[in-house]
Amino acid sequence: MGYAVLGSKSIQQLQRHIRAVAADTSSIVLLPHAKQRMRLRKVNINEVIEVLRHGSFIRTPEPNPAKGSLECRMQRYLTGRECAVVVAICDEQPDLLVVTVMTL
């Protein structure tokens, strides 16, 4: 796995990419840690989808060389709180892997 192509895109292009992929909910894969954090922080799947479809980057995406992916944190204010979703993306995998979910 790698992120050479995605890593060369601008912030705006990456946001558009994540939003476009999130349009198809079957392309959103929740990792076990993310599910655990969702339960702990009382965030439901609809809120995660909303953040991915309409959120923005507050931080610059960070490469994760150990996993061969680019980790992007999307944030959006909804339901009275700021929610953030970290997704891992790579060139070979078309899905969004939800790594963790946070409330701020």
Structure description:
The protein is an alpha+beta fold and about 100 residues long. Helices cover about 35% and strands about 35% of the residues. It is built from 4 helices and 6 strands. Strands 1, 2, 3, 4, 5 and 6 form a 6-stranded mixed sheet that branches. Strand 5 and strand 6 form a beta hairpin. Helix 2 packs antiparallel against helix 4. The chain starts with a helix and ends with a strand. The model has no long low-confidence stretch (mean pLDDT about 95).
Break the fold down into its secondary structure elements and pairings.
Elements: H1 4-7, H2 11-22, E1 28-30, H3 32-41, H4 45-54, E2 56-57, E3 62-64, E4 69-78, E5 81-89, E6 96-103
Parallel strand pairs: 1-6
Antiparallel strand pairs: 2-4, 3-4, 4-5, 5-6
Short description:
The chain has four helices and six strands, in the order ααβααβββββ.
Average pLDDT taken over every residue:
94
Q: Give the count of helical stretches.
A: 4
Q: What percentage of amino acids are in beta strands? A: 25-35%
What's the end-to-end separation, in Å?
A: 31 Å
Shape: globular
Helix and strand composition category: alpha+beta
| H/E topology pattern | HHEHHEEEEE
What share of residues is helical? Answer: 25-40%
